[in-house]
Every structure is written in C-alpha cells, then in structure tokens.
Amino acid sequence: KILKEEGEEWSFNEGCLSIPDVREDVFRKEQITIEYCEEDFVMKTEVYDGLIARVIQHEYDHIEGILFTDKISSLKKTLIKKKLQNIMDGKAFPDYRMKFANKKGR
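^ that's the sequence the OP posted. Answer follows.
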C-alpha cells in the first residue's frame, strides 16, 4: 500500500509491456512511503525515491486498474488513439508474447 507520495513531480518517458510500442512522459512524485507484508507476515514500512519509486508507483497503478496512459493528457491520448486501437484489435507485434482478450462476436 502506498501511504504517501511526496516531493516534486518529475517527468519520465514511461512504457509498459501491456501497451507495446507506446511511450509517453508521465509525471509522478519523487518519493513514496509504502507498507507491505513480507512472506512471514511481518509488516514493513519503507521509503523509496527516484526511479525505484517510479517503478513501484507504475506497478501499484496496475493493482488499482490504472495504466500509464490514464495519466497523460487528452491531447496525447488522441495522438496515440490509432496505436491503442491496433493493440485492442490484436494488430500489435511486440518482441514478446502477448495474450489478447477475446471480443464478443469474434
């Protein structure tokens, strides 16, 4: 669980295996405080900053059902609409294996 997001927001060009061939600048806070449970059920609280904080925020967003494209402007979403549609239509061909959701009526 992310307890706090602090500091200045900074931009970084993010991508995601879930959205191949799409990269955009995303603003995130520079420092986070997280709480988690270790495999032996010991609760931990730790502070991270910089790139590792960004990675944790990106992956935590996935848990919350948020993709990095949800954090970009409407204009940028419009500019990448065709790429996103190609991914949804199964027309993306990344260098790694992808599993596409079945659409009704196919």
